[in-house]
Amino acid sequence: MTEAPATNCVNALGDIAVVLGTRPEIIKLAGIITALGDRARVIHTGQHWDDSMAGQFFRDLGIGEPQVRLTSVAGKPRGLQIGLGVAELAEHFAEHPVRCVIVQGDTNSTTIGAQAANYLDVPVVHVEAGLRSFDRNMPEEINRLVVGAIADLHCAATPENAANLYAEGVAEDRVVITGNTVVEATELARAQAHRHLAAMVSDETVSRGYMLATIHRPENTDAPESLERILRDLASSGKPVVFTLHPRTAAAAERFGLTDLLTPFEILTGVGHADFLELAAHADLIVSDSGGVQEEVTVLKKPLLVVRRSTERPESMTAGFSRLVTPELDLAQEIASELRASHDALADTPSPYGRGTASREIAKLAERLALVS
């Protein structure tokens, strides 16, 4: 069952549900939650359930604690997360109706929120709609396709994302190009950095210049040879590496007997969003498999190597901020090449993700949709 406030009053809960469950969703939806004010009913699925992956971000972003927390999702495999989450959330919506549901991105929580709403004829707003990697081996791609078929209003970050939706037959009047909420989220976080660089990494690392690495996707952590290759190639550059260690990656290194390969790095855990951006803003190069980082570097004006088979964010590459390093490429060589290159032009390159107005625009669109539901 869901945990809800003592009152069952829908007005007290808010009539526009914002369903989230992971760190990136919290970060990217915070501006929308703030803009909605008392109308927002924040529902946490529990997909990321520990404090370092979720709790601290609610506090850091000043949006309070979720009004509702699902209890069936945390720690379950993907299929059970989605099945149990949809059932529990649909039950909550049946007991405490909403006028509109907002979901973001491509996580299991995204598809949980969209499906539960759709089954009860509640309109769905999809934030960051239309991303496509065209790689169905990627779990996130399946979530994108499912929510793309369900959503009533698609808030596309870029014209390229909108074009993907049109190609799938989505009517133009259901698509709005809003920009990406990551722009204002990044700018706000940079203004609220909790710790200066010197409090997180050694003076020697700062003086020599460093790479920032963060790896967590299943394609890089679920097979020992993949994770070993990445760790060895990161260490081979001769450059200091600051590694923000994701719980999935830490568990994989332990399981595969690869923890010794982490010793050359300066390891940081439980790094908040603002602190991560502080590290990224001063790095010579970022190496990551994160989707959000591909967007954030366009605001920070930093170079990025994306260690993945495919990406759903080609705009960052087209603009010159990132390059895709697929498994058949030599990551060590790509790192060496990128460290030698000049990135001066990035400082004057605009982000392809908008100018920082997406959150307010999406909140207004959701309120308008709620009026007619």
From TrEMBL:
<dbReference type="InterPro" id="IPR029767">
    <property type="entry name" value="WecB-like"/>
</dbReference>
<dbReference type="InterPro" id="IPR003331">
    <property type="entry name" value="UDP_GlcNAc_Epimerase_2_dom"/>
</dbReference>
<protein>
    <submittedName>
        <fullName>Non-hydrolyzing UDP-N-acetylglucosamine 2-epimerase</fullName>
        <ecNumber>5.1.3.14</ecNumber>
    </submittedName>
</protein>
<dbReference type="GO" id="GO:0008761">
    <property type="term" value="F:UDP-N-acetylglucosamine 2-epimerase activity"/>
</dbReference>
<feature type="domain" description="UDP-N-acetylglucosamine 2-epimerase">
    <location>
        <begin position="40"/>
        <end position="365"/>
    </location>
</feature>
<dbReference type="Pfam" id="PF02350">
    <property type="entry name" value="Epimerase_2"/>
</dbReference>
<comment type="similarity">
    <text>Belongs to the UDP-N-acetylglucosamine 2-epimerase family.</text>
</comment>
<keyword id="KW-0413">Isomerase</keyword>
